[in-house]
Amino acid sequence: MKISDEPVPHGAGQHAPFSVMEATVAGAHAAMRDGTLTARQLASRCLDRIAAYDQRGPALRSILQVHPRALEEADRLDAIVARNPSQPLAPLHGMPVLVKDNIECAGMATTAGAECLRGNVSASDAFVIRRLREAGAVVLAKTNLHELASGGETVSTLGGQTLNPYDLARTPGGSSGGTAAGIAASFGVLGLGTDGVNSIRSPASANNLVGLRPTMGLISRAGLIPCGLTQDTIGPITRTVADAALMLDVIAGHDPADPVTSEGAGHLPASYAASLDRDGLRGARIGVLRSFFGGQDEHRPVNAVMQQALALIAAQGAGLVDIDDAIRPDELLASTLVHHYEMARDLDAYLSQLAPGVRVRSIQDIIAAGGVHPSVAGTLATAVALSGQEAEYRERLQRQHALRQWLRDLVAQHRLDTLVFPHQRRLVVPVGETQTERNGVLASATGFPAIVIPAGFSAPERNAPQGVPVGLEFFGLPFTEPVLLRLAFATEQALQARRPPRSTPALA
């Protein structure tokens, strides 16, 4: 049985060698059914790529730890198929998954990138990990993140600075940048991230990927190291919209350990993947939120990509409606977010129930222990200072409520299916700078869903021979994931903007 890391030429025969480069669930399952791929081979080739490119070569530094029994799990899945060759494959059978290291996986440390949590070995799986395993997925590795998921550049005391595979002088966005860089470089087939403000969609935008932030209540957060549970959620990071939909089919659902999921239980369709439609843009009404675009010279690269993408969306039969209402993302960032007010409460609740060997039991313990990354120290101090500001906290919650109603009225007034805008008004920043002008606040402040897809690239430059990726964000009302996936899939198929990074080519 032959397996290759080389891309399969268009039109290749049925039994052409399978390529792990840009592998999808559908492609991998087709190869497994025709006998040219096993789960062990798929996991092994992903591990080969991690060995070649994560700490060596371009040294992306996206992986914090590899699951010590990943190949054993792949062998177990292969044995199931060998015993029942006519049995349909499980939805995610054999798919290697990269998991952001603030989500618990049994037998692995859950550190959030923090040195002080190095020994926090999880006794059980988070709800979403259990769902993935039940669907046949293989947890391959835990990924680097911005320490404690509290920043946008993906740097931590345990993992260092993760690099963007499209431009090794730039960050991969964050905080789920380790998952995104790894998925972009084909270290796994599927990725799992978390999003408190921008943290799934920012790295998806910066790494030419699909990133879905679901409606609050659709996916359980049980087993997540929290930053603030009013805004924290978990979601897919993938190379295609179809794979994001397949993941959502698996991980969405009610979990008694996270009461907010009772709100989503009545909104689950039979299948999110069934909503995908190549002609899904025809007749759609899409609001272009112009206040979420920049107007200066530094915004031109992003605006140029967005202009081309919007033109193609219109050519596919969608009606574009310019929305010029004076709603400014920077003002929303300053006035509506509540994660810093909740962080001490929610993080303390998580830390207090960890095993006795973990030396920190509160945010104050983390501060006292020292050693957190400098970019996080100020956030922790702010969280402690704001934890008792109940009046300000309640006022921000009221602003979030008002924003939800304003958006419902806006969508109804213009009869819109979605709002669209660039996830970032300017390109992802170089290493050493702080991410600015991201637009993820609209979804995080409301709990409404949003999905980012590849829109294209800026002009090539010395450090970025392909250009720097630009992501387009679709935003919708609660539990409209089927609509967003339909529009995102049709746009993805029209744009064909996904490209693998040249810094991590196929292995010989």
Descriptive labels:
508 residues; alpha/beta; Amidase signature (AS) enzymes; two-stranded parallel sheet; 15 helices; 34% helix; AS_sf; amidase activity; EC 3.5.1.4; Amidase
**Count of discrete alpha- or pi-helical segments spanning 4 or more residues:** 15
- Stretches where pLDDT falls below 50 for ≥5 residues? 7-13
Structure summary, number of beta strands: 15
CATH architecture descriptor text: Alpha-Beta Complex
Q: Output the helix-strand order.
A: EEHHEHEHEEEHEHEEHEHEHHHHHEHEEH
The CATH class is identified as Alpha Beta
* SS strand fraction: 5-15%
Domain Amidase: 44-485
EC number: 3.5.1.4
GO molecular function, one term: amidase activity
Protein name: Amidase
What does this structure look like?
With 508 residues, this protein is of the alpha/beta class. It has a single domain, classed as Amidase signature (AS) domain (Amidase signature (AS) enzymes). The protein contains 15 helices and 15 strands. It has an eleven-stranded mixed sheet, sandwiched between helices. Strands 1-2 form a two-stranded parallel sheet. Helix 2 packs antiparallel against helix 3 and helix 10 packs across helix 12. InterPro entries: Amidase_dom (IPR023631), AS_sf (IPR036928). It is an enzyme of class 3 (hydrolase). Its EC number is 3.5.1.4.
Present the secondary structure layout.
Elements: E1 3-4, E2 18-19, H1 25-33, H2 39-53, E3 63-66, H3 70-83, E4 96-100, H4 127-134, E5 138-143, E6 155-156, E7 160-161, H5 177-184, E8 190-195, H6 201-206, E9 210-213, E10 233-238, H7 241-251, E11 285-289, H8 300-315, E12 319-323, H9 329-335, H10 339-351, H11 363-369, H12 374-386, H13 390-414, E13 418-422, H14 441-444, E14 450-457, E15 469-475, H15 481-495
Parallel strand pairs: 1-2, 4-5, 4-8, 11-12, 11-13
Antiparallel strand pairs: 3-5, 6-7, 8-10, 9-10, 9-14, 13-15, 14-15
Helix pairs in contact: 2-3, 10-12
